[in-house]
Amino acid sequence: MKILNANQIREADMATIKSQDITSIQLMERVGGLCFNWIDTYLKSSQVHISIFCGVGNNGGDGLVIARKLIQQGYTVSCYVVNFSERKTEEFSHNYNLLKELGAEPLEINSEKDFPTISKDDFIIDAIFGIGLTRSILGFTADLIRLLNMSKAYILAIDIPSGLYLEKSNSKSDSVIKATHTITFQTPKLPFLIPENKIESWEVLDISLAEGFLKIVECDYQTIEAGFVSEILNQRKKFSHKGTYGHSLIMGGSYGKIGAVVLAAKSALKSGSGLVTSYIPKCGYEVHQVAIPEIMVEVDADTNLEFFNYKSNPNVIGIGPGMGTSEKTIKGFTKFLDENELPLVIDADAINIISRNRELILKIPRGSVLTPHPKELERLIGVWKNDFDKIEKAKEFSTNYNLILVVKGAHTMIVDRDKLYFNCTGNTALATAGSGDVLMGIITGLLAQNYTSVNATILGVYLHGLSADLGLKKESVETFTASNILDYLGMAFKSLREHEVLPQV
């Protein structure tokens, strides 16, 4: 899904009004009706007390539509208008009058003395501020938001939690609604996807905005969804053979850390690479051969990588897991980069070496992929003030060096110069040792199969997360390990193929 900015959302609304020959009030009625349907399905006509807090803009207008429909359906509703401004939109005023005509005139909140008593058993609907907020919330409105947050009641935010900025950071503010769940309209919102806001639960409601506009509007940011990824996935041909699907070389490991290479190499193999070779220190030879008999092994010095003089003929190299940062390894890695022309997937200690020796960045082949965890990313691009600043620094790094960055997290972010892709698969089961080694191996194996760098990365990140999602049908987040990702990777591929109903060969 495309991630629209505030101007594009307003343009989408206007395009919808024009192309569908409706008024803004009719569009608001549609939106409020869809929200009501969601709430009615969730509550199942229970007798819970519903408190709706509406601002005086169009987000508040949506709230008034919801209030009217809930009252008409027989729910117990208290509707409040938060008068933070004397300026009320036409759509708000229209729906305010409809509630009055229904005999359910909202209660006014003009100061702290008007605050209602909120029970933890209430169902709260937040429709105070929408996506247009760009300034800090002050006065009694800020106090009201803090009161709602302290209530411990279920809070449903409409479109965006009140107080949250759409296009800049305000994560340190204490006057942002801490929503239990958010239902947003048509497209995801950028603040939902970045760690600092800690938006735990949200979903997108399709409000039937103009399809023509949504197809042509240009967006640099988008989420990674099944339909998008299924178009990337290649179909295997009947007369192909192992050489058709490339040769991956995984380089890494050191004494006590051979397991990282085992995980990465097995992941490259299980992602479909026709051939896989591991290049490891001599001390890990027997362990690796026994662990994965399908993979060829070449060895370097005894306990660390030192010479990087592999003899195989790969078409892509994944490097870094468990590699260590000894002086001999750094020297050998530098010589390797001087001579290498193959695309790289760079992880772990290889990233740490590059971060400490910045001149090495220029030696990385263009279009290579780097997969840092947050601290490795910080060493690579510098300290950021907030997550919006992190995005800008990551884009600048990717653009300057023509490299792809995988910023791992709850919504792993793939940075391809100015283009950002946010993943929507995965869960906390992936917060386990070796998970990153598996991801690096999957991306390497896909690159070997002649996927473009960005497509291999998008597909790899999606499948990595989907494997964990499928795994939790049988495993728990506590017991799930990196090896379990590979246990469910086949199911992830199959699930993705079935989304497109591709024939299995």
Written account of the structure:
The chain has 505 residues and is an alpha/beta fold. It has two domains: 6-219, Rossmann fold; 243-500, UDP-N-acetylmuramoyl-L-alanine:D-glutamate ligase (3-Layer(aba) Sandwich), CATH 3.40.1190. The chain is 40% helix and 15% strand. It is built from 17 helices and 17 strands. The protein has helices at residues 6-19, 24-43, 58-72, 90-101, 139-150, 211-216, 226-230, 258-270, 285-291, 327-339, 348-356, 374-381, 387-401, 435-448, 453-471, 482-487, 489-500, and strands at 49-54, 76-82, 107-109, 123-127, 154-158, 181-185, 202-205, 221-224, 247-251, 275-280, 296-299, 316-319, 344-346, 369-370, 404-407, 413-416, 419-423. The strands form two sheets. A ten-stranded mixed beta sheet has the order 8-17-16-15-14-13-12-9-10-11, with helices on both faces. A seven-stranded parallel beta sheet has the order 3-2-1-4-5-6-7, with helices on both faces. Strand 2, helix 4 (90-101) and strand 3 (107-109) form a beta-alpha-beta unit. Helix 11 (348-356) runs parallel beside helix 12 (374-381). The longest helix has 20 residues, at 24-43. The radius of gyration is 26 Å and the shape is elongated. Mean pLDDT is 96; it is low at 501-505.
